[in-house]
Design brief:
Helix content is 9%, strand content 46%. By secondary structure, the protein is mainly β.
Length: 494
């Protein structure tokens, strides 16, 4: 039995053809899809890469064996397929509108890093998606009073309602190529945790994207202009980031990615074509061209099985010779290892991640991968984190996810100045200064029934060395609850 049977009344000739919009990482359906992947009930359409395309999600869910799904999972599969399937072959358009209210005792997006400012907030959004053959265009303006309280939001905070484009892009998609321009939250690396150099952390980061290849081998590029800085003379410093990736999914259960990133900057500087070239290495081009850049190298790997294992590693800087005082600079790196698999009616996820003290910082403070002081990958350094999570879908369709996390945070931060050579001996590779330790015991959940959605989390944080003060302790309750109502209309275009 296949979930596709629920759509047997829809002629095959009416199913989607051509380009496909992306399913945003924050979409209500994404947690359900991720759970089914973790349980091994559907294949991962794009391992080590998020977000999904909606057509890939519909295809994977349509081929799921419903006999292996719980009653709640079957209901959600039917709902997602019905919601995401495009029933037009030709030009097509869809409009979604939504409104919501929420309350929380913190303002940041990540409850693990919760601040102490809570508010009741309201939001409204409009999502317009258009498809013309091989081209798809999406705009998704969101107005949310929470943004004006969020310390990570770089936009206007002195207005009653803050707004942003959650997604806004045009993408041309062909059999062996995709050309993208706009903003869309992306994550390169294992999906259970934010990518080390490219994640969904930065708000509304507009970029160019390029993918060349097949469903098994692709060359991928990400190019953006970062916010400008001002030097000591008051001159505007232009800043750019380029990332290249070779992504490989051979027949079988493996997926790999080799990648690099370069941040360039300078007064009046433009992005040089040798860094743009997807067929070259930025580190080598920097040496040969005589231009300077902050370079990063990394790799991802994933093996799918009864237990799916994954890892990501980033190298920012390492000194080999140790001959001079400058060679005493501590290594800067990041890593993630973890796994996931089915457990009874749900799925478990376990990962450990570590980011060194000086990772993302650079002797040239303008060549750091920050967008309005938000990390392009991680927003923090000098920490490690161990998280264990269990997720399941109840009969009514609730996703419930209890979690235990241990976070150890040193005093290092990507926004701090890079230490001088004379400070290297006193600079820790990991855990600078007094380490704050947080144990998070929490449960989160979400539910969608027709137009009504419900999301929430509740947790207790046991914090030792609060704010890096030796011996200071605190117990904090962290919680949020949100209710949303959404409607959509779609049709073929004349």
């Amino acid at each position: 039995m296949r979930a596709l049977l629920v759509l047997c009344c829809i002629p095959i000739s009416l199913l989607a053809q051509g380009a496909s919009p992306y399913l945003p990482i924050g979409h209500w359906a994404t947690p359900y899809v991720e759970l089914l992947i973790a349980r091994g009930r559907i294949p991962d359409p794009t391992p080590l890469t998020r977000p999904f395309k909606t057509a890939d999600v519909v295809r994977a869910l349509s081929e799921a064996d419903t006999l292996q799904l719980s009653a709640g999972e079957r209901r959600m599969v039917r709902s997602i397929i019905a919601d995401l399937t495009i029933k037009e072959r030709g030009p097509w358009g869809r409009v979604d509108v939504a409104a919501g209210v929420a309350g929380a005792n913190y303002s940041r997006r990540d409850p693990l890093r919760a601040d102490s400012t809570g508010h009741f907030t309201g939001s409204g959004e409009l999502n317009l998606a258009l498809r013309f053959g091989s081209v798809v265009a999406v705009t998704h303006p969101v107005f949310d009073t929470r943004l004006k309280y969020d310390p990570d939001w770089y936009g206007k905070q002195d207005r009653a309602i803050a707004g942003r484009a959650a997604e806004a892009y045009i993408a041309g998609q062909w059999k062996y190529a995709e050309l993208f321009f706009g903003n869309l939250d992306r994550n390169w690396g294992p999906s259970a945790v934010q990518g080390l150099l490219l994640s969904s952390n930065p708000y509304s980061l507009t970029h160019f994207g390029l993918a060349l290849g097949t469903t098994g081998v692709q060359l991928q590029a990400f190019v953006t202009q970062l916010d400008s800085k001002t030097d000591s003379a008051g001159n505007a410093v232009n800043r750019y980031m380029v990332q290249h990736r070779l992504w490989v999914r051979p027949p079988g259960n493996w997926a790999f990615a080799l990648w690099e990133g370069s941040v360039t900057s300078g007064v009046g500087r433009q992005l040089e074509p040798w860094f743009l070239n997807i067929m070259t290495l930025g580190y080598v081009e920097q040496l040969n061209s005589g231009t300077n850049a902050n370079n990063f190298l990394g790799f991802d790997v994933q093996h799918r099985g009864a237990v799916t294992l994954y890892a990501q590693f980033l190298l920012d800087d390492i000194q080999i010779d140790k001959k001079t005082a400058a060679d005493q600079k501590p290594a800067s790196y990041g890593l993630t290892v973890g796994g996931q698999g089915a457990l009874g009616p749900g799925a478990w996820t376990l990962f450990y991640t570590q980011v060194a003290n000086l990772t993302y910082r650079n002797e040239d403070s303008t060549q750091v991968p920050l967008w309005h002081e938000l990390g392009i990958g991680r927003n923090y350094s000098d920490y490690d984190q161990l998280t264990a999570r269990f997720s399941t879908v109840t009969v009514p369709g609730f996703i419930v996810a209890p979690e235990v996390t241990l976070l150890r945070q040193g005093e290092g931060d990507p926004r701090l100045p890079h230490p001088t050579v004379g400070q290297y001996p006193a600079t820790a590779t990991l855990f600078q200064g007094i380490v704050e330790r947080t144990i998070r015991l929490a449960v989160s959940g979400s539910w969608q029934r027709g137009p009504i959605g419900l999301q929430g989390d509740a947790g207790v944080h046991l914090v030792h060395n609060v704010s890096h003060v030796e011996g200071a302790s605190a117990t904090r309750f962290v919680g949020s609850l949100g209710l949303s109502y959404r409607l959509h209309w779609e049709s073929g275009l004349p």
